[in-house]
Specification:
This protein is of the alpha/beta class. The protein contains 18 helices and 13 strands. Helix 9 crosses helix 14 and helix 12 (308-315) crosses helix 15 (358-371).
């Protein structure tokens, strides 16, 4: 099966966050299942295309990479759905139609809020199945935190509405699938779940270091729904209740001001300077060693579409405490490892129990080691290919390439009244079909 992939999530901040890590692991598994993969990058997005391509080719053997050229001015939240963005959508549709895959997949359909990214939406030039991977609808559920202006709300609502043109959806958890059905009113949703690479599976419980401070770890961003401040409130209670010495490490790609706000909270709570370690960004290849140095990983989010951090820690033989929210319960699978994310006292009690009871600590770690192998990228890839194949069987045959080009040319011209003939001709030439050896 030949699949086209919208690779713009690798050109945004998502590249180094959960979406980028998920998308890369999933398409690597697709390649392992024999799928022919063509991924396109937007040459108009600022950044080092060469470095991105090098990483993608290294991590996904056999991946073919193409370029297309959009002309969107900025993110939707700043400019709205301008004519130049609409033209770019049509041009991308032509680009995909010329590649002629069996199906097209948008790896992350919400990338365009703050950047001139133009996520793929199936249009007149592409008559085969179009699918999107959906991770969560967190801004929809938490608008006060993520959609602060009228422009933000309008842009996000427009993106949600635009999803209805897809033929099907691939969700990353049962929770995300349920959200998709509820918000979009569609039944065409497949739960891909997620996986863990075999080389992550430690096979043994992470050994405790006698006499060393108890190391607690959080991995991820620091935006509001991540709820990391609740960990500090819980640790204040741990200190007040005579818990052993501890160190709370925070690893992730977060802004300097977000880290300083967390440090300020720790000071106000009376925690010592050395109690909180703001480690900042990490390299993917260092993650296993980061987890294995920890005695406990905490995932306190108010909402998660999956909870990859929890799964990774479990695979490394480290106990996990996770919020009873979003998809985290279906990942962790152990009720006594869950807590109310809005109740720091409950989290403090869970932490103290693990600190003081080595048998309980080991039981949690062994549960994670046993559960993590149930999540495999191979199964996730096969679920996706089966869903795509089923939709493709119901979709009519595509028109000829010439018909695709004619349809899109008419659509672009109809929406490009403000573009000069020279600029329009240049845009169409940039995005003209290339021979298989080209970009």
């Amino acid at each position: 099966m030949k699949l086209w992939l919208d690779g713009q999530c690798f050109q945004s901040g998502s590249r180094r966050r959960g979406i980028g890590r998920y998308a890369l692991s999933w398409i690597r598994a697709l390649a392992g299942e024999g799928a022919e993969l063509v991924l396109s990058l937007n040459a108009a997005i600022p950044g080092d295309l060469g470095a991105i391509e090098e990483q993608l080719r290294r991590d996904v053997p056999g991946l073919s990479i193409r370029h297309w050229h959009g002309i969107a001015e900025a993110g939707l939240a700043f400019t709205g759905a301008t004519e130049r963005r609409r033209v770019s959508e049509r041009v991308l549709d032509l680009h995909v139609g010329a590649i002629a895959p069996d199906a097209a997949i948008c790896l992350s359909p919400f990338e365009s809020m703050s950047q001139p990214i133009v996520p793929f939406r199936p249009g007149p030039a592409f008559a085969r199945p179009g699918l999107a991977i959906l991770y969560d609808f967190i801004p929809h559920r938490m608008p006060d935190d993520y959609l602060k202006t009228a422009k933000d709300r309008a842009a996000y609502a427009g993106l949600v509405k635009s999803l209805r043109v897809f033929d099907g959806f691939l969700a990353i958890s049962a929770f995300a699938a349920a959200e998709t059905r509820a918000i979009l009113g569609t039944g065409s949703v497949t739960n891909l779940s997620a996986g863990i690479a075999p080389d992550w599976l430690a096979g043994t419980v992470k050994p405790r270091q006698p006499g060393a401070p108890f190391t607690l770890l959080y991995v991820g961003a620091l935006d509001p729904r991540k709820n990391v401040g609740s960990c500090l409130e819980a640790l204040q209670r741990v200190r007040q209740q005579g818990g052993p010495p501890f160190r709370f490490e925070v690893h992730g790609a977060y802004a300097v001001e977000e880290g300083e706000a967390l440090r300020g909270q720790a000071r106000r709570l009376g925690l010592a300077e050395e109690d909180l370690v703001l480690a900042g960004p990490f390299r993917d290849e260092d993650l296993v060693s980061i987890y294995r140095r920890a005695d406990l990983v905490i995932q306190p989010s108010l909402m998660e579409g999956f909870g990859l951090t929890a799964l990774e820690a479990m695979a490394c033989g480290v106990p996990v405490l996770a919020a009873r929210a979003g998809a985290l319960p279906e990942v962790v699978g152990l009720d006594e490892a869950l807590f109310d994310p809005r109740d720091p006292a409950e989290l403090a009690g869970r932490i103290l129990a693990l600190m003081r009871d080595p048998d309980l600590w080991e039981r949690h770690a062994r549960h994670g080691l046993a559960r993590a192998p149930e999540f495999t990228w191979t199964r996730s890839a096969r679920e996706g290919l089966a869903a795509i194949g089923a939709i493709a069987a119901r979709k009519p045959a595509p028109p000829s390439v010439q018909a695709e080009e004619d349809a899109l040319f008419e659509a672009v011209v109809a929406e490009a009244e403000t573009l000069s003939h020279g600029n329009l001709a240049r845009l169409l030439a940039l995005n003209a079909p290339k021979d298989p050896g080209g970009r």
